[in-house]
Amino acid sequence: MKNPESGSAAPGGLTRLRATVRDLWDELSASERTVAQYLASAPAEKMMFASAQELGTASGTSNATVVRALQRLGYAGLPALKRELAADFTSAVAPEVRLQQRIAHVGRDLENIWNDVFDETQDRIDQCRRLTGTEALQRAVEALADAREVFCYGVAACELAARHLALALGRIGRRARFVGATGFALADPLLSLAQGDTVVIFQPGRPLAELTVLVERARSVGAKVVFVTDELGEAFEDRVDAILTAPHTPTGITNEALTGLVVADALLLALTTLDETRAVEHSHQLTALREQLLSSPRDQRTRRA
Fold first, then answer.
1. Torsion of CA 103, 121, 244, 137, to 10 degrees
2. First to last CA, the chain
3. How many angstroms separate the Cα of 54 from the Cα of each of 44, 73, 115, 230?
4. What is the DSSP string of the chain?
5. Which segment, 25-29, 103-107, 253-257, is predicted with the most confidence on average?
6. Tens digits of per-residue pLDDT, 168-189?
7. How far apart (Å, rounded) are the C-alpha atoms in residues 61 and 105?
8. How far is residue 235 CA from its own chain's centroid?
9. What's the pLDDT tens digit per position in 48-59?
10. Of all residues in the chain, what percent carry a pLDDT higher than 90?
């Protein structure tokens, strides 16, 4: 069975939860049993959109008891349970129905809306921090540090993080470009991929055919690969140089690219510290170019004269 902390498990999240509650029932305290009984009987969609505090109130316990009960049941926390439930929920429920349920959950209470967004954001970032160890981060930084060029790949919601990384790498003096093509169009950028390059792939869970082709092309030419994902780590771990875990949203309340952007920023800061001189020089050049572009035509003529 897949570790619940590592992302979405195989289909049957609610079934697995109920089976685990039955198996571990005798090992739970009275308050943990109360939480476990509520979780085993509650609809999946209700748990997906609820915070630990809301589940504590609904079960007549507390948010701390909810978290403790989940850990006793083998989950890293509420986000881990939500991702397991989401695998079944998203495959069985149409997107427009999920949207309606999400709207029904938050209602029109602005305070609830504000809290729900920040609660899920915090949960995802905390989970992201825990799931990627220092060794994985070091392997990723080493793969990028000496790269001739970095290909930052991301499609759909993941495009934002890939574009951000490519742009920011250029600003610290490293050759990088965004690649977001799919289908036949991906063949052209793949053609220029060469030994000494590094590919950074942002894709949380959908196993696109392009990913396999991209990874195999990188391996065949001697390029390195860093994979930023949530659910695809196990499928690609023996074919890439580093895997960084970026938990996706189980509810759709927060942006899919959120944790990918955070991971990208960590990589950028690490690379900046490795070559401070180059980063500072390119920052200076960027500032000078911006000043030229912002100056008036009259100022430009004066400087040329």
1. 170
2. 73
3. 14, 19, 12, 26
4. ---GGGS--SS-HHHHHHHHHHHHGGGS-HHHHHHHHHHHHS-HHHHHT--HHHHHHHHTS-HHHHHHHHHHTT-SSHHHHHHHHHHHHHHHS-HHHHHHHHHHHHTT-HHHHHHHHHHHHHHHHHHHHHHS-HHHHHHHHHHHHT-S-EEEE--GGGHHHHHHHHHHHHHTT--EEEE---GGGGHHHHHH--TT-EEEEE-SS---HHHHHHHHHHHHHT-EEEEEESS-HHHHTTTSSEEEE----SSSSS-TTHHHHHHHHHHHHHHHHHTHHHHHHHHHHHHHHHHHHHS-HHHHHHHH-
5. 25-29
6. 999 999 999 999 999 999 999 9
7. 21
8. 16
9. 778 888 899 999
10. 50
The amino acid at residue 167 is L
92 alpha carbon, distance to own chain's centre: 23
